[in-house]
Each structure stands twice: as structure tokens, then as C-alpha cells.
TrEMBL record:
Keywords: Kinase, Serine/threonine-protein kinase, Signal, Transferase. It comes from the Bacteria. Residues 1-27 form the signal peptide. It comes from Fulvivirga imtechensis AK7. GO terms for molecular function: protein serine/threonine kinase activity. This is Serine/threonine protein kinase. PANTHER family: MEMBRANE-BOUND LYTIC MUREIN TRANSGLYCOSYLASE F (PTHR35936). SUPFAM superfamilies: Periplasmic binding protein-like II (SSF53850). It holds the Pfam family SBP_bac_3. The lineage of its organism: Bacteria, Pseudomonadati, Bacteroidota, Cytophagia, Cytophagales. InterPro entries: Solute-binding_3/MltF_N.
Amino acid sequence: MKNLNLKKLFRLFVVVFLAVNPFNLFAQLKGDTYAAAKAKGSANWVLTYAESPGFAAKKNGAMVGITVDIMRKFEEFIEQKHGIQVNMAYEAKDPNNFTLFLDEVNKAHGGVFGLSNTTITDARKKMYSFSPPYITNIGMVLTHNSVPTMNNISEIADKFAGMTAVTIKNSTNEKTIQEIKRKYYPSLTIEYVPSFGDAMQRVINDPKAFTNVDFTYYFEAIQNRLPVKRHPGGDESTEQFGIIMPKSNDWAPLLEEFMNSFVGSVEYKKIVATNLGQSAMKFLDTLK
């Protein structure tokens, strides 16, 4: 009888916990729409994020990164030009899971913004809204520095014989890996990890692994003197990053208006330099 009562008590606790905890598995992110904010003169925005060096990360308890700084400037723009007081709150179920991040944004409602190194693609535009691009990216193939250099992607089956590709589901980097497998390396084994940080750790610790990641991961590794090699043959055509939003986010036109005038400004360039460093800035200049 005692065990039965304990079981009932536990079930009751679980039900109550899921009902009152805003971060439970069934909760969906929701922020104020622009329409509602205009009527009351204030807005609550919810910002979710996936950890990405230089773009969005929590350091010493504070949010930092290019997208974080852009949203702060957008907040100022809304308050000064539209007279709406904005409160921003960061909520993320698992910042180290990029696939979950995309799903979280997709299921969100209203004034919710997703911050990370998120590539703008035609396929994603069908499911999400995007800001105008705020930076140009190039994907890189990285390995442990003991691996022989690959200067042409057609050499990959030979140079990377017996190696495993590590990537993240639903990312554009996964798409690149799948294209490499289809065109050049049919027998390639692909393993999946939750985050790009996990992929980098695998490469750093395992000479038999390689990954395709955005350029900022390479520069972060070099700055930290980690044993990582960039393979020129794996550099892919440029793509662009944007702030991602659910389709129901009616702030998108205002964010577009703001970014069209802000991106490229002196203040914008200062934000990029502060978050990425001078080496990355010089690299970005070569893409123009």
C-alpha cells in the first residue's frame, strides 16, 4: 500500500511539474506580435539560440555574438522610431542542439527570433521567415592537423580513406556531406552529433574523423591553437546567414527595414570585428 501511494504521489508531481513549468517538453515559445505591441505600446520578444562562436553564445552568464548585438540595435530602432518599449528574454531548451533549435523556432508563435549561424535557403524559406542576410559564409572541410592536405575535393576518397564524416542533421553542412558522398565517396560513413561544437571536438580528438563547418569554427580553433587543419579542396561556394523566425512573426518587415540600413554601417562593422576578430574580418573581405 505504501509503494502504491508513493507511485500515485510521483505521478501527481509529474503532472503538476509539466503543467506549471514553462520550459517543459511541450511548451512552445511565444512572443508579442507587432500588431499587439502597437496597441499596448510595449512588446515581449523571446530569443532562442544555438551556440555558435562569434554569432550567439552565453559567456559568463551573458549573451554575446553578432546576432545578439544586432537584436539589441533592432530593439533600439523599434523604441526610437516606433515608440514601442521592448523586453527581450532568452529561452533555449538545449543551446547545443542545432536540430532542436530549428524545430523550436518552427513551432514558435509571434515575436520569437532564432539566433545562430543559420543559412538562408529556399527550402527553409518555405517553413520560416528570415531577416536580410547579415554576413557571408564559406563552409570548410576540417580534420585533425595530422591528416594529409586535400587540395581538390575529387581526391577526398583517396586522401580521407577510412575516415568518417561527422555532421548535424538538417544543417546545410549535412547537405554538403551528403553531396560529397554521392559524387566522390560512395562508401563514406556519416555519423551525427547534436552540435557543431561536438563535431569540432570529434575532429580535434580523432584523426579518422572530418567535418564540414562554417568558417568561424576554424578561426576559433586557430585562435585557441587547437590541432585542426583546413583543406582548401573542401571550401564550398559562399552562402549567407540570417536571423530566423517563425512564419507568424509579423516583426519581419520591420527587421528587414532596420537591417537594410544597418548592415554595412560603421557600427555594424564594429560589431563584426568585436565578435569575430581581425583575422576573420580579413577573410570576409576576400569574399567580397
